[in-house]
Amino acid sequence: MAKTPREEPFSEKLRVPEALTFDDVLLRPMESHVEPDDAEMRTRVSTNVQLNVPVLSAAMDTVTEADLAIAMAREGGLGVLHRNMTVEETAEHVERVKRADELIIRDVVTANPDQTVREVDTMMEREGVSGAPVVDDDGVVLGIISGTDIRPYLEVGQRDEVREAMTDEVITAGEDVTARAALELMYEHKIERVPIVDDGGTLTGLVTMQGILQRREYQDAARDESGRLLVGVAVGPFEADRAEAADEAGADVLFIDCAHAHNRNVVDSAREIAGTVEADVVVGNIGTPEAAEALVDFADGLKVGIGPGSICTTRVVSGAGMPQISAVAGVADVASERDVPVIADGGIRYSGDAIKAIAAGADAVMLGSYFAGTDEAPGRVITMNGKKYKQYRGMGSVGAMRSGGGDRYLKEAEEDEEFVPEGVEAATPYKGSLASELHQLVGGMQSGMGYVGAASIAEFKERAEFVRVSAAGQKEGHAHDVVITDEAPNYKISE
């Protein structure tokens, strides 16, 4: 009797497909008519939100708070606020970003005509303003007072009332005023601020010369329909209260923030949140086509990355993960059929890695360590061996979990020793301004588009081809056989 083939259910598991990451591939150069500086970087990050550069900052407590989110949006990208803060603090950070470059300032510092000159001078110094509309108890504009008006009174009559020092002939405008119209009023009347009033003369806002000039400085900023800076917010899959507060505060995109979003409870909760908010909802992180299939029917975007980050230890702690290039490509295969944007989150060390992620199907990339060393990041500056660094930690580290991020990994504990961390606490070299770092990153990505001959992100994704690289090829691609004497801004010796 012939033997039946022995079943090998476990040996079969070892007949596995290959999965690749950034160092395993290179873009194949092609004939090109595109100069890198002319490559258009505009992209969608979610169904209804478009960025001028395809870059997001990570929702990490040593990377993105209001200051860095403002800087990111001014440069055309998107900052995603972390969630290791109270719900009230989340709303405050969103509002700070939204107020940063408003044409019409809504939270206006005002003076009362019965205040003394000294009181108003102290108030303006405390609030950081150089002038203020003077209003009555009903909010009707009576005049305007500035440092120039106050200065003589400080010398001779500090107790004089504001009504004596203010300018009572006030040039005002309505809600429909444009930046150009406001500037023309300022030029004609030699003033630096124009109160915005309703039909009854009640103050509703203020336009300042400084605000207009600041907006002009950031021509490529990512803004909403009202001209305010864009901002994203990370919310836990079970944080309906944070999602609601962020949405009401004006967040443009909510990021359902979980280390493994292909979890039935997470999927159900994310679907529920997406159905209750006005903001777009991006869900992550995932790493497989099957995960994309579970989310793509309701998500406005998908975020990809299971363990690729520099401070993430998920793969060695849990034994689970997916190399990033393969993860992005697998998710993009599904998402592209539904026209849902894909964000590659993590593992990007160089600008070349970022543009490879786009070639693999991503619409944008998210970075943490790349921006953690900038001035705008909240991490504290430390000095080691005479060199400056900034604090940087994974959201799966004990410290971040203790601060409230444990549910990102579907874990909760009261004491440090009860956590099973999937990240480390570290330091990253201090880098200076975010604008400089982003310039190097985007410039390198544009170079990659030039080598492929693509004038836009969409064309690049269609044209780009990969070649497989050997270990020798990887070594050849780096600086070698020399001693580097001066570090390049986009290639560090320590790397």
UniProtKB/TrEMBL annotation:
The keyword Repeat applies. NCBIfam families: IMP_dehydrog. IMP binds at residues 310, 345-347, 368-369, 392-396, 422. It comes from the Archaea. Residues 104-161, 166-225 form the CBS domain. It is an enzyme of class 1 (oxidoreductase). K(+) binds at residues 307, 309, 312, 476-478. The active site is at residues 312, 408. It comes from Halomarina halobia. It holds the Pfam family IMPDH. Homotetramer. It catalyses: IMP + NAD(+) + H2O = XMP + NADH + H(+). This is Inosine-5'-monophosphate dehydrogenase. Mycophenolic acid (MPA) is a non-competitive inhibitor that prevents formation of the closed enzyme conformation by binding to the same site as the amobile flap. In contrast, mizoribine monophosphate (MZP) is a competitive inhibitor that induces the closed conformation. MPA is a potent inhibitor of mammalian IMPDHs but a poor inhibitor of the bacterial enzymes. MZP is a more potent inhibitor of bacterial IMPDH. Its cofactor is K(+). Pathway: Purine metabolism; XMP biosynthesis via de novo pathway; XMP from IMP: step 1/1. Belongs to the IMPDH/GMPR family. The gene is guaB. Transmembrane segments: none annotated. Gene3D superfamilies: Aldolase class I. Its EC number is 1.1.1.205. GO terms for molecular function: IMP dehydrogenase activity; metal ion binding; nucleotide binding. Keywords: CBS domain, GMP biosynthesis, Metal-binding, NAD, Oxidoreductase, Potassium, Purine biosynthesis, Repeat. Catalyzes the conversion of inosine 5'-phosphate (IMP) to xanthosine 5'-phosphate (XMP), the first committed and rate-limiting step in the de novo synthesis of guanine nucleotides, and therefore plays an important role in the regulation of cell growth. The lineage of its organism: Archaea, Methanobacteriati, Methanobacteriota, Stenosarchaea group, Halobacteria. One of its GO terms (biological process) is GMP biosynthetic process. NAD(+) binds at residues 257-259, 305-307.
